[in-house]
Design a protein that fits this description.
heterodimer, A: mainly alpha, two-stranded antiparallel ribbon, 72% helix, 2% strand, B: mainly alpha, two-stranded antiparallel sheet
């Protein structure tokens, strides 16, 4: 067999194939539910209900979506330039560390000043964390996939050290956690009484900002050019190395905001389980959104809904909650295949 | 206990060989994939599924070697998925690899919870026992280290030789290396690049899964969610460090295992009382990054690594 490009794919092809990918994912979910001895329809219904069936469920989904929008954006920005940043997890924790460092009394500033200062400091930290692997890539040709992945493990150990050492909460009864943020450093709720904080709004704003950068600025154009064909971009006079570095700073900064928003908006302190793999899930979010920053918002809410829904379904129906992880990985793989098949056809001979 | 004591103890060298064993399997597996032109980032998840499947099979009552076979088959299945998506369809090897890692890890977690819903600590199996080779295992220092290991460890070392011989001494190895260097030349010989690459990824994934199974069936006797803990990513660094050659990769795995065994023991020394234990635990990951930097200048990357091949396209 060989693949042939299709110059002008039909609408059926462009929409039918991704829809088919989602249908296949749902089919696999049903099979897994059956395997676990549950009714597939009831299982899917429970997931849906747990994700969006009540005001509480919906707010929970939006809360869970917030860090995923940030990490999804981080991945989308980087992958667009074919910069494989798999280290959003490390950058997230970098942002979280700085948030605790500055938010526990180090800066005597009023809230309106303190929060932006912390956010910017968190972004800078995340950017710096990704700078290392990117310079290794542009200067030495070291593959950034492996280095960013390895950094995740180093970072988690570093956080563990901080939480058992210099950053340990003296009132924490021996638990490895940081002291709580001052009230001035906490992100307030958008509407009093509703459990949704300003981190969500910041995430939406970030998505808009990234969209503007990608579609309305020279940098956005350069990032796309580098991603499409680095050699051609170099030939056209685009400083590929510099564009890579700028992309990395943006990507790392966005991922760090996830840590900032989780600590300052939701948790109030830093623990080792701050992120249940938000950095890795961000890859799925970005790919399902076709690396489109506005799409990231939608796909993050969708992915968050599946995870939140699966949690509550698992309690009710007894199907292991890991069904959500299988679903998301399946959705990722079927979606990239569906997208390939919209622009190419298979010739058997 | 100081450094010299550590280096002169037989248990240290035995630990080096033990720690190196799963890395050798998985590094060989990755090396085979990459030599054929496919980067397999599914390695981390495939090691997890191998660790789970082998352990589960033995827990359900099969023999240890059948368990190894089950682990290998599970790995090959995910290898087939990876190969199908990346080779004939030419999808991004980065995205597919990460997707396969996520899928395999999630499958292992799901299957674990499904089969053992109530348990809080995973059940133990009787793992492979050390197999003392007569006479040789009586050599001081070297004997206990090299000749008092489990059968899987011996298999790992034998495989290094087998893979080297196949790669450099057989037509199959030549075709495989050519698929990773100059796929058009393989087609010109009338061979199928697609078949060679897919075969390499499937076989390589089987080896990765055995590496994972070593953890549950030889090193420990239970399955834990975080047990692979980045070993797959370290193996990818080892392939680069070994310049895509089995012998050098073995050397890298041993060197790496040496530092890993050393850091565990240094934690017990006066140094360990001063330096936080997390710093010791960082050593393997930091070393992997250093190895990548060191080898970056003289890397002999297969020329067609990560380049999809589409017949008839130039």
């Amino acid at each position: 067999m060989r693949l042939e490009p299709i110059p002008n794919p039909t609408a059926l092809r462009r929409f039918g194939l991704p829809a088919g990918a989602l249908a296949l994912t749902v089919l696999i979910a049903s099979a897994l539910a059956l395997l676990a001895g549950a009714n597939p329809f009831a299982t899917l219904g429970l997931i849906l209900k747990g994700a969006a069936g009540s005001k509480f469920a919906l707010l929970e989904t939006l809360n869970r979506a917030t860090p995923l929008i940030f990490t999804g954006l981080a991945v989308a920005v980087a992958f667009r330039a074919k910069l494989w940043n798999i280290g959003a997890e490390a950058q997230l924790y970098g942002g979280a560390i700085v948030t605790v460092l500055l938010g526990t009394g180090a800066l005597p500033l009023p809230s309106a000043l303190l929060i932006p200062v912390i956010a910017v400091a968190a972004m800078l930290t995340g950017a710096l964390i990704l700078l290392g692997p990117v310079l290794m890539k542009t200067r030495l040709g070291v593959d950034e996939v492996v280095t960013t992945l390895l950094f995740n493990f180093i970072m988690l150990l570093f956080v563990s050290y901080l939480l058992e050492g210099p950053m340990k909460d003296p009132m924490g009864m021996g638990w490895p956690k940081s002291p709580a943020l001052d009230k001035a450093a906490r992100l307030p709720r958008i509407v009093e009484g509703l459990r949704l904080h300003w981190g969500f709004a910041l995430a939406i704003l970030s998505a808009l900002a990234v969209w503007v950068i990608q579609t309305r600025t020279t940098l956005g154009y350069e990032i796309r050019a580098v991603g499409l064909n680095a050699e051609a971009a170099r030939f056209a006079g685009i400083p590929v190395g510099k564009v890579m570095v700028k992309t990395a700073l943006l990507s790392g900064g966005l991922a760090a905001l996830a840590g900032f928003s989780e600590v300052a908006g939701l948790k109030g302190n830093l623990t080792l389980d701050l992120s249940p793999g938000f950095g890795y899930t961000g890859i799925i979010v970005a790919m399902l959104a076709l690396l489109n920053p506005l799409g990231v918002v939608i796909s993050a809410i969708f992915v968050a809904g599946v995870f939140v829904g699966a949690d509550s379904m698992s309690r009710a129906a007894g199907v292991p909650t890991y069904i959500a992880d299988i679903l998301m990985a399946t959705a990722l793989l079927t979606m990239v295949l569906a997208l390939k098949l919209t622009t190419t056809r298979i010739r058997w001979r | 206990m100081d450094l010299l004591d550590i280096l002169l103890s037989a248990t240290f060298w035995a630990a080096v060989i033990r720690i190196a064993s799963p890395l050798i399997f998985a590094t060989l597996g990755e090396l085979i994939c990459e030599r054929a032109g496919v980067l397999n980032l599914g390695i981390e998840g495939i090691m997890v599924i191998g660790a789970f499947a082998g352990w589960m099979a033995v827990y359900l009552g099969t023999g240890l070697w059948v368990g190894v076979g089950v682990a290998m088959l599970a790995g090959m299945l995910f290898g087939l998925l990876h190969a199908t998506l990346t080779v004939p369809f030419g999808l991004s090897q980065h995205v597919v690899g990460l997707g396969v890692t996520l899928l395999a890890t999630a499958t292992a977690s799901f299957a674990y919870r499904l089969s053992l819903p109530e348990v809080t600590s995973p059940p133990k199996i009787t793992p492979f026992q050390p197999w003392e080779i007569p006479v040789l295992s009586d050599i001081p220092l070297l004997g206990p280290a090299l000749f008092s290991q489990t059968a899987l460890t011996y298999l790992a070392f034998i495989l290094v030789i087998v893979v080297s011989l196949i790669l450099y001494r057989t037509p199959l190895g030549l075709a495989l290396r050519a698929a990773g260097e100059n796929p058009a030349s393989v087609e010109a010989q009338g061979l199928s690049v697609t078949a060679i690459r897919m075969g390499a990824v499937i076989v390589g994934s089987g080896l990765m899964a055995i590496g994972g199974a070593f953890l549950t069936m030889s090193a420990f006797s239970s399955f834990f969610f975080e047990m692979v803990n980045g070993r797959g990513w370290i193996c990818i660094a080892l392939v680069v460090f070994g310049a895509w050659r089995p012998g050098k990769a073995l050397l890298g795995a041993l060197l790496f295992a040496g530092f890993d065994a050393l850091q565990v023991r240094l934690q017990q020394t006066p140094m360990g009382a001063v330096v936080p234990y997390q710093v010791f635990l960082m050593v393997p990951y930091v070393l992997s990054i250093l190895a990548l930097i060191l080898m970056s200048r003289r890397a002999e990357v297969p020329a067609a690594l990560m380049v999809p091949f589409n017949k008839g396209e130039r």
